[in-house]
Amino acid sequence: MNKNKFKILWALFVIFFKAGTFTFAGGLAMLPVIEKDVVEKYKLMPKEDFMEYATLAQTLPGVIALNCACFVGRRAGGFLGMLVAGFGATFSAFALMIAATVLLQFVPQEGPVAGAFMGIRAASAALVLSAAFSLGRHNLKSRFAVVVMLAAFALVLFAKVSAPLVVLAAGAAGYVYQRIKSKGEVAK
Amino acid sequence: MIVKCAELLYSFFKIGLMGFGGGYSMLSMIITESEKFSITAQQFADLNALDMIVPGPIAINAATYVGYLYAGFWGALAATVGVSLPSIIIITLVMRFIEKYKENKFMNSFLSGVKPAAVGLIAAASLTIASGVLLQPGAQLATLFSDFFGTVSVFLVAVFAVTAVCNIKFNINPILLTLLAGAAGAIWYML
Fold it and tell me: Cα Rg for chain B, rounded, in angstroms?
């Protein structure tokens, strides 16, 4: 491997390792940090290209930060670059989560600590509900969207349909609905 | 052991493949899919609290956690690789056809259905967790209608409601809210 290629691979690892280690609250928060490094510090690609990848990373399925790492890594360092960047983006989350999971088993669940955990769990369930609200603000702008939302909600909660299947069915419904809508507009 | 890891790999691969819309949407799928892995509502609530202190993508944290509880270190690795693989495969394909993909009408109309569905899934996930963690110690949800106050803890429901309103309406920091809820729980226990 020549020296230049090694330098690029190292830069990819550092950028995504840093982004994966020092940003909390999920992948979306990492994008501005990654942009600065990729575009300005290491000059791996022009800003427009990065923005295009970042947008695609959010519309494609999968972990957003990892999608972004795969795009940037592949573009700058080929297949190996993609693996190195992807490893960098996920390694900290994996290692630190294992440590946290192991430590959690050691917390004695009795006395006031048990009470504290009950409070934390109740808050935690409320914060997931809050995530649904903040996503809903942007994504429930038509009657169709509201119907799909309610259907997905009822299917997984009451009919116990598998969630990936619901997503697939919702996508198919979206496709059919847009086809009918565009046909209706043409007919007018 | 190998069977357990293969189950994790398969389930999380499916979740990664259908995981449109980021971390919480995948988290909700993990919750509905995880009956297989015998993870309780309590453990999911713990996971969501840990997510706030452990850095990194939510879906990677969740895969590691569920995998570790179900099958130890190798389970954690299998689940994490499973949820990551679709990204590597899909992006290799998209890079090849990137110009075509950008103006893909099929994808846009597909997403117009997927995005609102993700909202429904996350809301359902929240109620699934809530139905497990808002109960009196040792109570079962089955007695909800015959013995309401013996089943549901009014204190925990209040914590749930106050946290939801504070975060949704007043945008108060989730980590602060979690710490306050923990303190309130400890004090309530001692009273």
Answer: 19
Shared domain check, A95 and A11: yes
Neighbours of A107 (CB within 10 A): 11
Judge if A162 and A72 occupy the same domain.
no
**How far apart are alpha carbons A169 and A173 in whole angstroms?**
6
Q: Which domain range does residue A181 map to?
A: 140-188
Q: A residues 67-126 near B, CB within 8 Å?
A: 67, 70-71, 74-75, 79, 82-83, 86, 89-90, 92-94, 96-98, 100-102, 104, 111-126
Q: Please, where are the H alpha helices in B97-173?
A: 98-102, 105-133, 148-151, 154-168
Question: pLDDT 10s per residue in chain B (191 long)?
Answer: 899 999 999 999 999 999 887 788 898 888 888 778 989 888 989 998 888 888 888 899 999 999 999 999 999 999 999 999 999 999 999 888 876 666 677 888 888 899 899 899 989 989 988 988 898 877 777 777 788 888 889 999 999 999 999 999 998 888 889 899 999 999 999 88
Under a CB-based contact definition with an 8 Å cutoff, are residues B52 and B178 in contact? Answer: yes
Nearest beta carbon to residue B15 from set A83, A144, A164: A164
